[in-house]
Amino acid sequence: MLATRLHYSIGELCDEFGVTARALRFYEDEALIAPERRGTTRLYSERDRARLAWILRGKRVGLSLADIKELLDLYDLGDGRKTQRLMTVERCQAQADKLEQQRVDIDATLSELTQFIALVKAQDQET
Predict the structure, then answer these.
(1) Which CA distances in Å does 76 have to 26, 27, 35, 71?
(2) Do 51 and 67 have their domain in common?
(3) For the chain, what is the domain count?
(4) Same domain for 38 and 96?
(5) Residue 3 shares a structural domain with residue 48
(6) pTM across the whole model
(7) d(Cα 73, Cα 50) in Å, to the nearest integer?
(8) How far from 64 is each of 11, 20, 44, 68, 87, CA to CA, in Å?
(9) pLDDT tens per residue, range 15-46
(10) Per-10-residue mean pLDDT for the chain, 127 residues long?
(11) Three-state SS for 81?
């Protein structure tokens, strides 16, 4: 990782996080990050870098951008991030519950497919 600094270029964040410049501009358009602008140059702060890490983690676990934005905005409440942590746990638990249900559904589908394949093979061997 890059050492803590005052500013990061778009290229540095793209390299560090494996995202495209277009993705960073999209997150900026969605008001998830807010780089300082000097002409056409964007200078990202340590705060933007930390928010980007949150955004990407949230996307990896299946949270919507709206959920991610809401959780990021809770950082600024001034309550020592207590509300942000509680809401993060709540959203992540809901996502984990959803994924667990999907796993049950996938396992049931796989079982049904395995049985169907065996049935078709058995019928094929009879002929």
Answers:
(1) 22, 18, 17, 10
(2) no
(3) 2
(4) no
(5) yes
(6) 0.72
(7) 13
(8) 25, 19, 23, 6, 14
(9) 999 999 999 999 999 999 999 988 888 899 99
(10) 74 95 94 90 92 94 91 79 88 93 97 95 85
(11) coil
